[in-house]
Amino acid sequence: MIKAGTTEARADAPAPAVRLPRRRGIELALIVVAVLLSVYGYCAVGIARHGAVPPGAAGYGAGLGVLALVAHLAVRLRAPDADPLLLPIGVLLNGLGLVLIYRLDLETPGDRAAPAQLVWSTLGVAFFIVTVVLLRDHRVLQRYAYVCVAGALALLVLPILFPAVNGARIWIRIAGFSIQPGEFAKVLLAVFFAAYLAANRGALAYAGRRVWWLQLPTGRVLGPIVSIWLLSVLVLVLERDLGTSLLFFGLFVVLLYVATGRTGWIAVGLLLAALGAVAVGWLEPHVHSRVEDWLHPLASIEAGRGPNQLSQSLFAFASGGILGTGLGLGHSVLIGFAVKSDFILATAGEELGLAGLSAIFLLYGLLVERGYRAGLALRDPFGQLLAVGLASIVALQVFVIAGGVTGLIPLTGMAMPFLAQGGSSVVTNWAIVALLVRLSDRARRPYDQGPA
Amino acid sequence: MTRHIRFAAVLCVLLLVALLVNATRLQVFQAADYEDNPANRRQTIARYGQPRGNILVGGRPITGSKDTGEQLRYERTYLDGPLYAPVTGFASQVYGTSLLEDTEDGVLSGADPMLAPFPLLGDLTRARNAGGDVVTTLHEGAQRAAYEGLGGRTGAVAAVEPSSGRILALVSTPSYNPEALSGNGPSVERSWVGLNEDPDKPMLNRAARQTYPPGSTFKVVTAAAALDAGVVTDVDEATDSPDPYRLPGSSTSLTNEAEGCADASLRAAFMWSCNTVFAKLGVRVGVGDLAATAQAFGFNGTGMRIPYAVAPSTFDTSVDAAQLALSAIGQYNTRATPLQMAMVAAAVANGGQVREPYLVERTTRRDGATLDTAGPRPVRQAMHPATAVRLRELMEDVVREGTGTNAAIPGATVGGKTGTAQHGIGNSGTPYAWFVSWAQGERDVEPKVAVAVVVEDADADRGEISGGGDAAPIARAVMEAVLGG
Predict the structure, then answer these.
(1) A58-85 pLDDT tens trace
(2) Domain CATH code at residue B230
(3) What is the ipTM of this complex?
(4) B391 lies in which domain range?
(5) Chain A residues near residue B15 by CB distance under 8 angstroms
(6) Which residues form the signal peptide (chain B) (predicted)?
């Protein structure tokens, strides 16, 4: 099916013996740029709305700057060979998210989300620092694969015990904080999948039964992983969080393909995904209405019931045009509920335009690319699979939610990494970046050196 | 494994490309469709996001804007709303716009691309231009005199400048305050329902959008047609007219309220408003010539705009002789707006030339720079200049010693014509009192104002309704206001 033989020769070229430049200085410079861009956005909102720089601008810039610098120091000390792009991208996206949430807070004076988001961002960066400092070698995680999967399942099951919020049982509310445990489960599942597939890579290639042209691995190998995947999907369907379910499924298929190299997995995955989507879209009214909205986003207007959230989101993107209305000058707040979380991208699309939106997409693309690059450069299968898995989480999540709010695919509720309001999501994303930093540090470190 | 990682990366690139292509489709190619969707409130928000430009009378704004701080931020306010309502119309956030607020909306709301100081700059910066102003041709004193003259009665006044077509006054009573329709609260809905259900129809623009049977004021048109067609060559020569006049082909006889109409000259018949004489004149002129003259004055013309659309005045061309006789004295299917009748008087005053009337002198940017001016209006010759001279004489006689003496202004030349129009089934309705006139001040080289007044007063006794009694004093007040300043 796929015969890209020409690239094969280059793919396995030996790693260069010369030491790669560490480029910590570039990382610092890029962090400064990221912080300045965020502060500029913050000021632009204030000037557009009140004609003056907002009073908190200096504090905001200082806070973000100190956080980023501490994170940079942690990287400099503990992961000196890490990829210099990862941390600045995280800082810029998080800073931009804070600006967008602050900007939307101006429209909803009774419901301010930016301060809490700043606290969560601080926690996220702290988690990043702790991970980079304490986790000296990513291979340690391989030992805790089964702890990870148990934890992930526990986190997924936990919200079922709590009351549903907005039709989905994915939150737990404790002491005024709402936490979305499914977010953390993503990373844990990625670790488990990577560890399990790395350990059983050889066994998975064993010939099992043959169904038509497809060579299945033996049931003994495949059984556990499929059952865990099915369990997680079942939990998600029960919780009506289709977006995360889709994400896990995609993650599973990608890692299985990368580990075994069997294109059949892709075919099976797509077939299963299509079957699952049709079944769920048919049976579940909540999802069915999402599919209807996707096919006919303006149907509610034609029926005289006014625009729904998706059409309001499309209006916002359309209003942005190529250059956008400018920060603080759009009307994405018309989307209403979830404008700061699931639909945050609509604000970016309206106020920054196609230019700004493309820049954001490319930032995510760069983040993913850096993850894959680390995966390519690593030499242990677990590290390779983990890097690919984590990068794929980001890629799939961005695609599912960005495609949803722009009408490319049916809308499923999910947080835009780093941009959207939501503490669990921010902390999870910083954890992903921390692991990628650790992985890239290992990937770029010369052979002969031990831990720095 | 490396190779498979690369393939997975290619998949991610495909996802990224899909997102970028889709965003381009949405934000570039389909943007206009979504922008124009009526459910998209952005255009509405932008429209009300800045103060609306003003409508000016005599250099002073008669409108304003109020900052409410709501999502649709600025609401329209009116100084003297009822006085100017037939000119301004309303600008409501719920019910849209009407009249000048509607036709000049592009300038007032700032949407007109001409408002941009530099072309294409607005497309880049996306800044909306400040709303421009609309300078009207109205004469404040004339408008006020007409409104106060009508008082509590139902009626309308239209006044134009004969030489240019500038509308000097446009009044309709009972009126309403358009400010009651600004904004979007529940009180606006109540006002809207109340105004629409009001039996007095305060939102009806009687001066330009309501037609009445013009009655005897239409005799100006009939006289012009008779003189132009050569049916009458000497206004002092006796016409061969019986009194009462039996309508041709029917058993109905037409009578007069005045005495001495039998075989009266055109001058006398015009002065005393003899129905019999003009009915017979109309028949002698014939439907072709009479209709041609009426159309030259503006009857049967659709699409007249001042700049908002005016109800077409009508003169029925498919009539038999009896119907033609009645049409010639402004009855049967002959109907005219007060504005149309003001144009008739203006044509007589302007040497037979009809100027298209207009309300907007010019539009300006917020800083006063002129955007657009009215410019010369099309001219139509409604009658020979010689006919106009003789009609002026006849109209002057009416005011000097005929039915219209109430309109006389000391020191000024005034010509007029009264009318009392029957209407309703079997003429059962309370008649409308009409007066059309023009006036020229002592020092003016040409007539300065032409007026048409109609008073429909359901409360008055039928016999007392008369053009000379009810309508002429209002016309005089309007003419005095124009001549005096």
Answers:
(1) 888 898 999 999 999 999 999 999 999 9
(2) 3.40.710.10
(3) 0.91
(4) 215-363+374-484
(5) 395-396, 398-399
(6) 1-23
